[in-house]
Structures are given as structure tokens and as C-alpha cells.
Write a structure and sequence with these properties.
Elements: H1 3-8, E1 16-18, E2 25-27, E3 45-46, E4 63-71, E5 77-83, E6 89-93, H2 100-112
Antiparallel strand pairs: 1-2, 3-4, 4-5, 5-6
Length: about 120
Amino acid sequence: MSRDQRSRTRRPGADSFRCRHCRLDVPADAPGTEHRNHCPTCLWSVHLDAVVPGDRAAACSAAMEPIAVHVREDGEWALVHRCGGCSAVSVNRVAGDDNPLALMRIAVRPLARPPFPLETLRL
């Protein structure tokens, strides 16, 4: 891993990390979750964990785009991320300080861009 990659990647025990997408410094602590794995402002993540949250075992280390919101059975929201390097998909719980507008933009994206012309719907 290059020095530049290390500066953009969260290190175990670090108090913060720099978001690879929006370049903001992000605190490592997150309300509502034990492992902050994405930027609360733009919701992008980094492919660091291979299997267990916090394991930092993934070799990819590429940026992960938030592509969808998933609602769990208990009503909790989770972000779906796709890795820009290896195309892996992961689901991560939403943190208490995540940007609500960014979450809603992702949630309504399928409604804003339906796969068929809206004129075909008859009321």
C-alpha cells in the first residue's frame, strides 16, 4: 500500500479517517454503530473489511459507492455499497449522524428513474 493510500485509509485505533470521495476528515466514532465504515456526509466507504466488520482484511482498499438503502425487518436502515475496484457488494448499518438528505436521495433514486415510462401507469 502506498503512502497516499495509507493517508486516505482508516488505520486500526485511529481517531479519524479522510473520506476518499469528499475528502472530509471523519471521526472514527459513530452513534448507533460500533464500526464506522462510511463517511456520514457523502456516505461513501472504503473496501477494508473482508468478512467481519472491523476485520480490515480486504486486500482491495478501493472506494465503495453507496448504491441503495435496505430496510431491515426491524425497520433499521442499512446502506448497500458496491466496490469500485472488485465490484463486491456489502450492507452496512446507517449511523446516527449520517446525512439524512443523502440517505433520502439514495432511497428515492429508483422512483425518480423508473425502468419504464410513467405514462404506462393508469390510475
